[in-house]
Design goal:
It is built from nine helices and 21 strands. With 391 residues, the chain is of the alpha+beta class. The structure holds adenosine-5'-triphosphate.
């Protein structure tokens, strides 16, 4: 349905500097999928989306929507935004304040109407359908300035789908809503997208939102995609400590590979502090390789210790520094190995008072072992600075 190949977009900063917003991005989205671009602020998500919409002119690459090239720098094709059959929801909603709810939703059709001569009756039917679908039928005649945040969001969605677009682009559509409404609107967006069977590209920096909504997630960093997969794979098989940390509150514990192993095998590692643990390897590893064990908060087995009691063989001892109540569970910040680990326990488990001691079993085999590429990135940086890196 959508194919992006080697997309690149730079902006002029000042006269000496060019800002590379999107360095080299390629991905494919199947029809009917919800595909998410996820990453920290400034990594190039919005620029990628705006290039797909036709609101930015890429430097190079190719964009194909539903089999038709809409941008190709090699052939000079550049289809204008209004001819790309796209619906878009902006972070700011971009609702026209001088129009009623109905007029806002109808507006995109009036642009189409001139070319396709869509009769007023046809427009009314499409607007009514879109308003009903978003539960906004009762507000049709209201001035658009007299709406709550959630209603403005629904209006923006109704306006984006009224023209029955092939592709729906959503740029951080929930970021202006409070936490509770955000949660509800997530389901609304998923329902809408599934009901319409429309292909959607969703941009967010919220990993919870991405995991809950997406069929496929691409994680971006510094203008490139660093990993792509379904939510389950991204969460359970992060390819780097950046992804592991970004996608969930992962604990990263450093150590050394004890016995060589191949990707997917259970690898034994010796951690800082001499404790042994194991986890499945996300790449081939040799004995002695520096590694990072990624331990999710919910994968650590925790037992309270009485004063002066030692941790069982093979387990770490730690001190509870803070307790965060999350409703059904409690997160403990536990100091061990000179750092804080985040550990999730059921809310009805032992009280785990601050400053009490706990034994931590992180050898649950549910952890992941990644290669520790901190030294690699450091040597790349040195090469960069010396001008030795290949372009
Ligand atoms: P956020 O989550 O904060 O919206 P993002 O991942 O969507 O971030 P982009 O908005 O795509 O990131 O920006 C990528 C980079 O390009 C940033 O460094 C940004 O400052 C720069 N950039 C974006 N638009 C422009 C512009 N019009 N002119 C100059 N630089 C720009």
């Amino acid at each position: 349905m959508l194919r992006i190949e080697n997309l690149r977009k730079t902006f002029s900063g000042n006269e000496r500097e060019r800002i590379t917003a999107v360095s080299d991005v390629s991905f494919k989205v199947e029809a009917g999928q919800l595909f998410t671009l996820l990453g920290p602020s400034g990594c190039g998500k919005t620029t990628t989306l705006r290039c797909i919409a036709g609101l930015e002119h890429p430097d190079s690459g190719k964009i194909t929507i539903d089999g038709a090239d809409v941008f190709d720098d090699t052939t000079g094709v550049l289809v204008p935004a209004y001819r790309r059959a796209i619906g878009m929801v902006f972070q700011s909603y971009a609702i026209w304040p001088h129009m009623t709810v109905r007029e806002n939703v109808e507006f995109p059709l009036t642009v189409v109407a001139r070319r396709h001569r869509l009769a007023a009756k046809g427009r009314t039917r499409l607007v009514n359908e879109a308003l009903e679908l978003m539960g906004m039928g009762a507000y049709a005649q209201r001035p658009s300035t007299a709406l709550s945040g959630g209603q403005q969001q629904r209006l923006a969605l109704a306006r984006a789908i009224v023209g029955k677009p092939k592709l729906l682009l959503l740029d951080e559509p929930l970021s202006n809503l409070d936490a509770k409404l955000r949660e509800r609107m997530r389901f609304e967006i998923k329902r809408l997208q599934t009901e319409l069977g429309v292909t959607a590209i969703y941009v967010t920096h919220d990993q919870g939102e991405a995991l809950a909504l997406s069929d496929e997630i691409a994680i971006m960093r510094d203008g490139v995609i660093v990993q792509q997969g379904n939510p389950n794979d991204i969460y359970n098989q992060p390819g780097s400590d950046f992804v592991a940390d970004f996608i969930g509150s992962a604990n990263l514990v450093f150590g050394t590979c004890q016995v060589a192993g191949r990707v997917g095998e259970l690898i034994e590692v010796e951690l800082e502090g001499g404790v042994r643990a194991s986890g499945s390897a996300t790449c081939d590893l040799a004995e002695g390789d520096p590694v990072v064990l990624v331990v999710r908060p919910e994968s650590v087995k925790t037992t309270p210790l009485a004063e002066g009691e030692r941790a069982p063989e093979g387990q770490l001892i730690g001190t509870v520094r803070a307790r965060i109540f999350l409703g059904e569970s409690v997160d403990l910040l536990v100091e061990t190995l000179g750092r804080e680990l985040r550990i999730r326990v059921p809310a009805d488990s032992a009280p785990y008072r601050p400053n009490s001691s706990v034994a931590l079993d992180i050898s649950s085999r549910r952890g992941l072992v990644l290669r520790d590429d901190r030294t690699l990135s450091l040597s790349n940086k040195v090469e960069d600075e010396l001008g030795l890196a290949t372009a």
